[in-house]
Amino acid sequence: MPAYIITGGSKGLGAELARQLLHQGTAVHCVSRGESPSLRQEALSMKGDYTFHAYDLAQTDGLDSLMERILGLVDRADAITLINNAGQLEPMTFIGRADQGDLQMSLQVNLVAPTLLTNSFIRQTQALPIKKRVVHISSGAGKKPYPGWGAYCTAKAGLDMLTRCIGVEQMEQPYPVEVISVAPGVVDTGMQREIRAASEEDFPQLRRFVKLHADGELQSPEATAAQLLELLQRDAFTQGEIADLRTKKELSS
């Protein structure tokens, strides 16, 4: 049975990825601060195996032990995928106005935690002769600067470069770990509600996102998860690729 480890798996895109994988009969390990009661209930009637791991990703010192514990439960899997999905937009304000602690928290959750988890995952699975993959859920914000999203844009750009570096490093390994970074597009999740609740002073592009919602142009988590999983299961990505899910889907169809 293939195994998936999903951070931020209690809501939004992460929860929908977990839900669809469980329907397919996959072993799913969700990592987040709080559990989704509805996902746990649904998992009882699904074919896959669901395990929840309560963990605050801002507590970076324990991430290596967390990964060791999870991998110890999936040691008989024929393929293992880590999806670094967890993220936060806060603090949504200009650099120079942000609270120091909020900035540190943002970078820990959005960049430091996925970097450490990926490092631990590769170290502990490098010698395994099975399919191994790390998927970073990135954003167009990693390529384009948005005023008010300085910390978020910086973290996503960092994840994209981390992906490129690991892609080069893994090419010569006997049992390589595939690493990709995927921007899913504008998905209708709680993060979008946070954006619409922001002030225009802190986020000057507020009206654009309000209009996307009003015009029904946000993608659903269900459709986005289905597109991503379909491409992953077709091995449609290349090592170290930085992909946009919307254009990738069009090119692959």
TrEMBL record:
The keyword Cytoplasm applies. InterPro entries: Biopterin_syn/organic_redct, NAD(P)-bd_dom_sf, Sc_DH/Rdtase_CS, SDR_fam. Pfam families: adh_short. The keyword NADP applies. SUPFAM superfamilies: NAD(P)-binding Rossmann-fold domains. Its EC number is 1.1.1.320. Keywords: Cytoplasm, NADP, Oxidoreductase. Belongs to the short-chain dehydrogenases/reductases (SDR) family. This is (S)-benzoin forming benzil reductase. It comes from Paenibacillus violae.
